[in-house]
Amino acid sequence: AKSKGGHNYQFFNESMNRNAVRRLQVENQLRQALRNNHLRVVYQPKVSLTNFNYVGVEALARLQIPGVGMMSPIEFIPLAEETGLIIEMGEQVLRQTCRDMRHWLEQGHELGRVAVNLSAKQFLQPDLTQRILTILAEEQVSPHALELEITEGVVMDDPEHAITIMTELNQHGIQLALDDFGTGYSSLAYLKRFPIQTLKIDKTFVDDINAAERDRNMVASIVAMAHNLGLNVVAEGVVNHDQAATLSRLNCEYAQGYLFAKPLSSDALLEQLNAPALI
Length: 279
Ligand code: C2E
Ligand code: CA
Ligand code: CA
Ligand code: CA
Description:
Elements: H1 2-35, E1 39-48, E2 54-65, E3 69-71, H2 73-83, H3 85-106, E4 113-117, H4 120-123, H5 128-138, E5 146-151, H6 152-157, H7 159-171, E6 175-181, H8 188-193, E7 198-201, H9 203-207, H10 213-228, E8 232-235, H11 241-249, E9 254-255, H12 266-274
Parallel strand pairs: 2-4, 4-5, 5-6, 6-7, 7-8, 8-9
Antiparallel strand pairs: 1-2, 1-9, 2-3
Ligand C2E binds next to strand 2, helix 2, helix 3 and strand 6.
């Protein structure tokens, strides 16, 4: 038993080592990508469930690693948060998004509001609003064209502070969405007080919306509550027609998901918009 334990220990050590090496690797790749302008932004359309028109897009970060390809944010966002690199990354994403927005306008496309994800560390910056307004002004994009997606976890960490920042952003015309709703621990008391305009229902509720009555009832309740609070509702991760039909029946008006469109490069998005039939 003792030798087996020793073996296990060594294995544990090696895998910890591999993990540490991997983390260092990703951190270096992230630093280089930020320095060398290898950060990419892709855009996933949001559609109306009534007429399937595009009503906006969400900007999603990608890392272009030379010789390797695209790295998913699932892999680099947590590390970016830990190292603080997320602040520089988030600002680069916002700047690139603004540039693409101007390009779409110049090509004659009005894509509705464009949503950018905000990280916990960014949200804690005391001068967040000013930093965002500066980038918008430099890139000549109106604050009214921007929406920020913030997760429940981020705002519930210090809800009173969150309300102050959110109110400030709102006063400048920037809209706010509560992301991944249902996976965190928002209290209803705060939900009422947050100056948000949109709730995004997390994919985990949408996954089983037809298979599980409980999930369907949850979504129905969230939609009803959101509407009572005067909020828009977007369902995330819609992959089939049955889910879209059920969401529509439950009065959810907007959705995002592979059924409608995957995240697309700015050019691919324009190509889709120029194509004769959308869906
Ligand atoms: P999120 O904000 O909840 O974004 C939705 C994620 O679900 C995206 O993954 C999107 O590609 C994916 N998705 C959309 N529709 C479907 C679908 O029908 N099926 C499935 N299986 N997935 C779908 P992605 O792009 O890998 O991003 C993952 C997470 O990384 C995001 O989750 C967000 O929390 C974070 N993230 C991405 N870009 C940024 C960024 O610029 N800044 C910050 N702070 N976080 C970001
Ligand atoms: Ca999001
Ligand atoms: Ca989400
Ligand atoms: Ca998510």
